[in-house]
Design goal:
The protein is an alpha+beta fold. It has two domains: about 130 residues, Creatinase/prolidase N-terminal domain (Creatine Amidinohydrolase, Chain A, domain 1, 3-Layer(aba) Sandwich), CATH 3.40.350; about 210 residues, Creatinase/methionine aminopeptidase superfamily (Creatine Amidinohydrolase, Alpha-Beta Complex). About 35% of the residues lie in helices and about 20% in strands. The protein has ten helices and 18 strands. The strands form six sheets. Strands 4-3-2-1-5-6 form a six-stranded mixed sheet. Strands 7-8-11 form a three-stranded antiparallel sheet, sandwiched between helices. α7 packs across α8 and α9 runs antiparallel to α10. The two termini are about 40 Å apart.
Protein backbone atom coordinates (compact mmCIF):
# COMPACT_ATOMS: atom_id res chain seq x y z
CA UNK A 1 0.00 0.00 0.00
CA UNK A 2 1.05 3.63 -0.42
CA UNK A 3 2.90 5.05 2.57
CA UNK A 4 0.86 7.46 4.64
CA UNK A 5 -2.41 6.59 2.90
CA UNK A 6 -5.34 4.67 4.34
CA UNK A 7 -5.95 1.59 2.15
CA UNK A 8 -9.67 1.95 2.90
CA UNK A 9 -9.66 5.26 1.07
CA UNK A 10 -9.69 3.66 -2.37
CA UNK A 11 -12.76 1.56 -1.55
CA UNK A 12 -14.53 4.51 0.05
CA UNK A 13 -13.95 6.53 -3.11
CA UNK A 14 -15.35 3.76 -5.32
CA UNK A 15 -18.39 3.31 -3.13
CA UNK A 16 -19.01 7.06 -3.11
CA UNK A 17 -18.80 7.27 -6.89
CA UNK A 18 -21.28 4.42 -7.27
CA UNK A 19 -23.76 5.93 -4.81
CA UNK A 20 -23.44 9.29 -6.56
CA UNK A 21 -24.30 7.63 -9.88
CA UNK A 22 -27.25 5.80 -8.32
CA UNK A 23 -28.48 9.04 -6.76
CA UNK A 24 -28.26 10.75 -10.14
CA UNK A 25 -30.52 8.00 -11.53
CA UNK A 26 -32.83 8.25 -8.49
CA UNK A 27 -32.13 4.66 -7.48
CA UNK A 28 -32.34 3.87 -3.77
CA UNK A 29 -31.47 0.15 -3.82
CA UNK A 30 -29.07 -1.67 -6.14
CA UNK A 31 -27.99 -5.31 -5.96
CA UNK A 32 -24.45 -6.12 -7.16
CA UNK A 33 -24.05 -9.80 -8.10
CA UNK A 34 -20.91 -9.90 -10.27
CA UNK A 35 -18.12 -11.07 -7.94
CA UNK A 36 -15.40 -8.95 -9.63
CA UNK A 37 -17.55 -5.86 -9.11
CA UNK A 38 -18.06 -6.80 -5.47
CA UNK A 39 -14.31 -7.15 -5.06
CA UNK A 40 -13.75 -3.76 -6.71
CA UNK A 41 -16.18 -2.08 -4.32
CA UNK A 42 -15.33 -3.87 -1.07
CA UNK A 43 -11.94 -5.63 -1.29
CA UNK A 44 -13.46 -9.11 -0.84
CA UNK A 45 -11.39 -11.80 -2.60
CA UNK A 46 -13.72 -14.77 -2.11
CA UNK A 47 -16.02 -16.30 -4.71
CA UNK A 48 -19.52 -16.06 -3.20
CA UNK A 49 -21.27 -12.88 -2.08
CA UNK A 50 -23.96 -10.32 -2.80
CA UNK A 51 -23.67 -6.58 -2.24
CA UNK A 52 -26.77 -4.50 -1.57
CA UNK A 53 -26.14 -0.78 -2.06
CA UNK A 54 -28.84 1.49 -0.62
CA UNK A 55 -29.14 5.23 -0.21
CA UNK A 56 -28.30 4.74 3.47
CA UNK A 57 -25.84 1.87 3.75
CA UNK A 58 -23.95 -0.95 2.01
CA UNK A 59 -24.72 -4.54 3.03
CA UNK A 60 -22.25 -7.31 2.26
CA UNK A 61 -23.94 -10.73 2.31
CA UNK A 62 -22.00 -14.00 2.22
CA UNK A 63 -22.05 -17.48 3.78
CA UNK A 64 -20.30 -19.02 6.78
CA UNK A 65 -17.29 -20.23 4.73
CA UNK A 66 -16.12 -16.64 4.34
CA UNK A 67 -16.91 -15.36 7.85
CA UNK A 68 -13.29 -14.80 8.90
CA UNK A 69 -12.12 -13.75 5.44
CA UNK A 70 -14.70 -11.03 4.94
CA UNK A 71 -14.07 -9.65 8.44
CA UNK A 72 -10.47 -9.04 7.33
CA UNK A 73 -11.06 -7.90 3.76
CA UNK A 74 -14.41 -6.15 3.39
CA UNK A 75 -14.33 -2.36 3.66
CA UNK A 76 -17.16 0.09 4.32
CA UNK A 77 -20.04 -2.39 4.63
CA UNK A 78 -22.32 -3.97 7.19
CA UNK A 79 -21.61 -7.70 7.02
CA UNK A 80 -24.46 -10.21 7.04
CA UNK A 81 -23.87 -13.96 7.25
CA UNK A 82 -27.25 -15.72 7.07
CA UNK A 83 -27.82 -19.37 7.87
CA UNK A 84 -29.81 -19.92 4.70
CA UNK A 85 -29.90 -18.58 1.16
CA UNK A 86 -28.12 -15.31 0.41
CA UNK A 87 -30.98 -14.26 -1.85
CA UNK A 88 -33.58 -15.00 0.81
CA UNK A 89 -31.62 -12.92 3.29
CA UNK A 90 -31.42 -10.10 0.75
CA UNK A 91 -35.18 -10.21 0.18
CA UNK A 92 -35.86 -10.08 3.90
CA UNK A 93 -33.52 -7.13 4.30
CA UNK A 94 -35.17 -5.22 1.47
CA UNK A 95 -38.63 -5.87 2.86
CA UNK A 96 -37.54 -4.79 6.33
CA UNK A 97 -36.37 -1.48 4.85
CA UNK A 98 -39.64 -1.30 2.85
CA UNK A 99 -38.06 -1.11 -0.60
CA UNK A 100 -40.45 -1.95 -3.40
CA UNK A 101 -38.14 -1.25 -6.35
CA UNK A 102 -34.75 -2.85 -6.81
CA UNK A 103 -32.12 -2.13 -9.45
CA UNK A 104 -29.87 -5.04 -10.36
CA UNK A 105 -27.00 -5.83 -12.71
CA UNK A 106 -28.31 -6.64 -16.17
CA UNK A 107 -25.99 -9.64 -16.52
CA UNK A 108 -27.25 -11.31 -13.34
CA UNK A 109 -28.45 -14.91 -13.69
CA UNK A 110 -32.06 -15.70 -14.51
CA UNK A 111 -32.31 -17.50 -11.16
CA UNK A 112 -31.61 -14.23 -9.33
CA UNK A 113 -34.09 -12.34 -11.49
CA UNK A 114 -36.76 -15.03 -11.13
CA UNK A 115 -36.39 -15.11 -7.34
CA UNK A 116 -36.65 -11.34 -6.89
CA UNK A 117 -39.31 -10.41 -9.43
CA UNK A 118 -42.09 -11.94 -7.30
CA UNK A 119 -41.52 -9.38 -4.54
CA UNK A 120 -40.04 -6.29 -6.18
CA UNK A 121 -40.27 -4.12 -9.23
CA UNK A 122 -36.92 -4.82 -10.90
CA UNK A 123 -34.86 -2.34 -12.90
CA UNK A 124 -31.87 -3.72 -14.86
CA UNK A 125 -28.77 -1.53 -15.04
CA UNK A 126 -26.11 -2.09 -17.67
CA UNK A 127 -22.42 -1.96 -16.70
CA UNK A 128 -22.73 0.68 -13.97
CA UNK A 129 -19.82 -0.65 -11.91
CA UNK A 130 -17.89 -1.68 -15.01
CA UNK A 131 -17.89 1.95 -16.18
CA UNK A 132 -16.40 3.02 -12.86
CA UNK A 133 -13.77 0.30 -13.27
CA UNK A 134 -12.62 1.81 -16.58
CA UNK A 135 -10.63 4.50 -14.76
CA UNK A 136 -7.97 3.00 -12.52
CA UNK A 137 -6.89 4.62 -9.28
CA UNK A 138 -3.29 4.71 -8.05
CA UNK A 139 -3.59 1.45 -6.13
CA UNK A 140 -4.89 -0.35 -9.23
CA UNK A 141 -2.14 1.05 -11.44
CA UNK A 142 0.43 -0.14 -8.94
CA UNK A 143 -0.98 -3.68 -9.10
CA UNK A 144 -1.24 -3.71 -12.91
CA UNK A 145 2.37 -2.57 -13.29
CA UNK A 146 3.40 -5.33 -10.88
CA UNK A 147 1.49 -7.84 -13.03
CA UNK A 148 3.32 -6.56 -16.13
CA UNK A 149 6.68 -6.89 -14.40
CA UNK A 150 5.91 -10.45 -13.32
CA UNK A 151 4.94 -11.41 -16.86
CA UNK A 152 8.04 -9.84 -18.38
CA UNK A 153 10.43 -11.27 -15.79
CA UNK A 154 8.98 -14.73 -16.38
CA UNK A 155 9.38 -14.42 -20.14
CA UNK A 156 13.00 -13.27 -19.94
CA UNK A 157 13.80 -16.46 -18.00
CA UNK A 158 12.05 -18.69 -20.53
CA UNK A 159 13.28 -16.97 -23.69
CA UNK A 160 16.69 -18.66 -23.57
CA UNK A 161 14.94 -22.02 -24.04
CA UNK A 162 13.26 -21.00 -27.32
CA UNK A 163 14.99 -22.66 -30.25
CA UNK A 164 14.39 -24.84 -33.29
CA UNK A 165 13.16 -28.29 -32.25
CA UNK A 166 11.38 -27.22 -29.06
CA UNK A 167 7.60 -27.76 -29.05
CA UNK A 168 5.00 -25.04 -28.58
CA UNK A 169 3.61 -26.91 -25.58
CA UNK A 170 7.02 -27.06 -23.87
CA UNK A 171 7.45 -23.30 -24.16
CA UNK A 172 3.93 -22.68 -22.84
CA UNK A 173 4.44 -24.95 -19.84
CA UNK A 174 7.79 -23.35 -19.00
CA UNK A 175 6.24 -19.88 -19.22
CA UNK A 176 3.22 -20.76 -17.07
CA UNK A 177 5.51 -22.18 -14.38
CA UNK A 178 7.78 -19.13 -14.54
CA UNK A 179 4.79 -16.78 -14.15
CA UNK A 180 3.72 -18.61 -10.99
CA UNK A 181 7.29 -18.55 -9.66
CA UNK A 182 7.29 -14.75 -10.10
CA UNK A 183 4.48 -14.55 -7.56
CA UNK A 184 1.29 -14.69 -9.64
CA UNK A 185 -1.46 -16.69 -7.94
CA UNK A 186 -3.15 -17.42 -11.23
CA UNK A 187 -2.64 -17.31 -15.00
CA UNK A 188 -5.14 -14.82 -16.48
CA UNK A 189 -5.57 -16.94 -19.63
CA UNK A 190 -3.97 -19.99 -21.22
CA UNK A 191 -0.59 -19.00 -22.64
CA UNK A 192 -0.64 -18.85 -26.44
CA UNK A 193 2.42 -20.21 -28.23
CA UNK A 194 1.87 -20.51 -31.98
CA UNK A 195 4.56 -21.24 -34.56
CA UNK A 196 4.69 -21.52 -38.34
CA UNK A 197 1.25 -21.99 -39.91
CA UNK A 198 -0.30 -22.08 -36.41
CA UNK A 199 0.67 -18.45 -35.87
CA UNK A 200 -1.92 -17.48 -38.49
CA UNK A 201 -4.57 -18.43 -35.90
CA UNK A 202 -5.08 -15.42 -33.57
CA UNK A 203 -6.06 -17.60 -30.59
CA UNK A 204 -4.17 -20.78 -31.33
CA UNK A 205 -3.63 -23.36 -28.59
CA UNK A 206 -0.12 -24.74 -28.00
CA UNK A 207 0.48 -28.05 -29.76
CA UNK A 208 3.26 -30.60 -29.99
CA UNK A 209 4.49 -28.94 -33.19
CA UNK A 210 8.25 -28.37 -33.08
CA UNK A 211 9.70 -24.99 -34.01
CA UNK A 212 11.29 -24.99 -37.46
CA UNK A 213 13.76 -22.71 -39.25
CA UNK A 214 12.02 -19.65 -40.72
CA UNK A 215 8.96 -19.91 -38.46
CA UNK A 216 7.11 -16.91 -37.15
CA UNK A 217 6.43 -17.46 -33.45
CA UNK A 218 3.66 -15.64 -31.55
CA UNK A 219 3.69 -15.77 -27.75
CA UNK A 220 0.75 -14.17 -25.90
CA UNK A 221 0.80 -14.31 -22.10
CA UNK A 222 0.01 -12.42 -18.92
CA UNK A 223 0.37 -12.50 -15.16
CA UNK A 224 -1.53 -11.44 -12.04
CA UNK A 225 -0.83 -9.24 -9.03
CA UNK A 226 -3.36 -8.45 -6.27
CA UNK A 227 -6.11 -9.77 -8.55
CA UNK A 228 -5.17 -7.48 -11.46
CA UNK A 229 -3.92 -8.77 -14.80
CA UNK A 230 -1.45 -8.02 -17.56
CA UNK A 231 -1.58 -9.02 -21.24
CA UNK A 232 1.43 -8.99 -23.59
CA UNK A 233 2.20 -10.42 -27.03
CA UNK A 234 5.49 -10.59 -28.86
CA UNK A 235 6.30 -12.19 -32.21
CA UNK A 236 9.69 -13.66 -33.12
CA UNK A 237 11.27 -15.07 -36.25
CA UNK A 238 13.30 -18.28 -36.22
CA UNK A 239 16.43 -17.99 -38.31
CA UNK A 240 15.88 -19.50 -41.75
CA UNK A 241 15.47 -18.93 -45.48
CA UNK A 242 12.82 -17.08 -47.51
CA UNK A 243 11.62 -14.86 -44.67
CA UNK A 244 11.15 -11.60 -46.63
CA UNK A 245 7.33 -11.67 -46.53
CA UNK A 246 7.39 -12.41 -42.79
CA UNK A 247 9.73 -9.51 -42.13
CA UNK A 248 7.49 -7.26 -44.22
CA UNK A 249 4.31 -7.99 -42.25
CA UNK A 250 6.25 -7.57 -39.00
CA UNK A 251 7.33 -4.06 -40.05
CA UNK A 252 3.73 -3.17 -40.93
CA UNK A 253 2.29 -4.44 -37.65
CA UNK A 254 5.00 -2.68 -35.64
CA UNK A 255 4.25 0.62 -37.38
CA UNK A 256 0.51 0.14 -36.81
CA UNK A 257 1.23 -0.47 -33.12
CA UNK A 258 3.37 2.68 -32.87
CA UNK A 259 0.87 4.85 -34.74
CA UNK A 260 -2.04 3.73 -32.61
CA UNK A 261 -0.17 4.31 -29.33
CA UNK A 262 1.03 7.74 -30.43
CA UNK A 263 -2.55 8.79 -31.26
CA UNK A 264 -3.94 7.95 -27.80
CA UNK A 265 -5.34 10.97 -25.93
CA UNK A 266 -8.33 11.85 -23.75
CA UNK A 267 -11.58 12.64 -25.55
CA UNK A 268 -10.81 10.43 -28.53
CA UNK A 269 -13.22 7.65 -29.38
CA UNK A 270 -11.77 4.21 -28.72
CA UNK A 271 -12.82 3.12 -32.18
CA UNK A 272 -10.72 5.94 -33.69
CA UNK A 273 -7.57 4.24 -32.33
CA UNK A 274 -8.75 1.02 -33.95
CA UNK A 275 -9.27 2.88 -37.24
CA UNK A 276 -5.72 4.27 -37.22
CA UNK A 277 -4.16 0.81 -36.95
CA UNK A 278 -6.70 -0.84 -39.24
CA UNK A 279 -6.42 1.74 -42.02
CA UNK A 280 -2.63 1.55 -42.03
CA UNK A 281 -2.72 -2.23 -42.34
CA UNK A 282 -5.39 -1.95 -45.04
CA UNK A 283 -3.38 0.65 -46.99
CA UNK A 284 -0.37 -1.68 -46.77
CA UNK A 285 -2.38 -4.37 -48.58
CA UNK A 286 -3.28 -6.64 -45.65
CA UNK A 287 -6.67 -5.34 -44.53
CA UNK A 288 -8.32 -8.72 -45.07
CA UNK A 289 -5.89 -10.35 -42.64
CA UNK A 290 -6.60 -8.26 -39.52
CA UNK A 291 -9.93 -9.42 -38.12
CA UNK A 292 -9.90 -8.65 -34.39
CA UNK A 293 -10.05 -5.40 -32.45
CA UNK A 294 -6.97 -3.26 -31.85
CA UNK A 295 -7.23 -3.44 -28.07
CA UNK A 296 -9.21 -3.84 -24.87
CA UNK A 297 -9.17 -2.69 -21.28
CA UNK A 298 -7.33 -4.76 -18.66
CA UNK A 299 -7.87 -4.81 -14.91
CA UNK A 300 -9.68 -7.26 -12.66
CA UNK A 301 -10.75 -8.92 -15.93
CA UNK A 302 -8.39 -9.67 -18.78
CA UNK A 303 -10.93 -8.23 -21.23
CA UNK A 304 -12.93 -5.22 -20.07
CA UNK A 305 -13.84 -1.71 -21.18
CA UNK A 306 -12.76 0.28 -23.07
CA UNK A 307 -13.11 -1.73 -26.27
CA UNK A 308 -10.78 -0.50 -29.01
CA UNK A 309 -12.60 -1.94 -32.00
CA UNK A 310 -14.68 -0.67 -34.89
CA UNK A 311 -17.74 -1.40 -32.74
CA UNK A 312 -16.36 0.35 -29.64
CA UNK A 313 -18.44 3.14 -28.11
CA UNK A 314 -16.09 4.20 -25.31
CA UNK A 315 -14.41 7.59 -25.04
CA UNK A 316 -10.81 7.54 -23.84
CA UNK A 317 -10.13 9.17 -20.47
CA UNK A 318 -7.20 9.65 -18.14
CA UNK A 319 -6.84 6.64 -15.85
CA UNK A 320 -7.76 4.03 -18.45
CA UNK A 321 -5.48 1.03 -19.05
CA UNK A 322 -5.77 -0.92 -22.29
CA UNK A 323 -3.87 -2.94 -24.85
CA UNK A 324 -2.80 -1.95 -28.35
CA UNK A 325 -2.45 -5.18 -30.36
CA UNK A 326 -2.74 -4.98 -34.15
CA UNK A 327 -1.95 -8.09 -36.14
CA UNK A 328 -1.68 -9.68 -39.58
CA UNK A 329 -2.44 -13.38 -40.07
CA UNK A 330 -1.57 -15.00 -43.41
CA UNK A 331 -2.86 -18.57 -43.85
CA UNK A 332 -0.03 -20.92 -44.76
CA UNK A 333 2.63 -18.29 -43.99
CA UNK A 334 2.08 -17.28 -40.38
CA UNK A 335 1.03 -14.33 -38.29
CA UNK A 336 2.36 -11.34 -36.40
CA UNK A 337 0.82 -9.65 -33.36
CA UNK A 338 2.52 -7.03 -31.17
CA UNK A 339 0.65 -6.20 -27.98
CA UNK A 340 1.53 -3.52 -25.47
CA UNK A 341 -0.30 -2.17 -22.44
CA UNK A 342 -0.95 1.56 -22.30
CA UNK A 343 -1.92 3.75 -19.34
CA UNK A 344 -3.52 7.08 -20.26
CA UNK A 345 -1.96 9.44 -17.74
CA UNK A 346 -2.20 13.25 -17.64
CA UNK A 347 -3.32 13.42 -21.24
CA UNK A 348 -0.56 11.21 -22.66
CA UNK A 349 -0.08 7.49 -23.38
CA UNK A 350 2.36 5.78 -21.04
CA UNK A 351 3.48 2.37 -22.31
CA UNK A 352 3.84 0.16 -19.23
CA UNK A 353 5.16 -2.89 -21.09
CA UNK A 354 8.95 -2.72 -21.38
CA UNK A 355 9.98 -5.62 -23.59
CA UNK A 356 11.50 -4.51 -26.89
CA UNK A 357 9.37 -4.47 -30.04
CA UNK A 358 12.04 -4.66 -32.72
CA UNK A 359 12.03 -7.93 -34.66
CA UNK A 360 14.19 -10.50 -32.91
CA UNK A 361 15.70 -13.39 -34.88
CA UNK A 362 16.09 -16.44 -32.66
Amino acid sequence: MHKGKDPNKFYQQRQSLLRLELSRRRIKAFLVTEIKNIRYLTGFRGSTALLLVTDRELFFITDFRYKEQCMREVKGCSIIIPKGSLLTATKMLLKKMRFKTLAFEKDASFRIYDTLRKDFTLKPLDAVVEKLRQKKDKEEIKSIIKAVQRAENAFVKVKKHIRVGVTERTIALRLEEAIKREGAYQIPFDVIVASGENSALPHARPTDRKLRPGDLLIIDWGAEADGYFSDITRTFLLRGKNTEKKREIYRIVLEANRMAIKAVKPGLRAKDIDSIAREFIKDSGYGDFFGHGTGHGVGLDIHESPRLSFLGKDILEDGMVFTIEPGIYLPGTGGVRIEDMVYLEKGKPRVITRLGRRLEIL
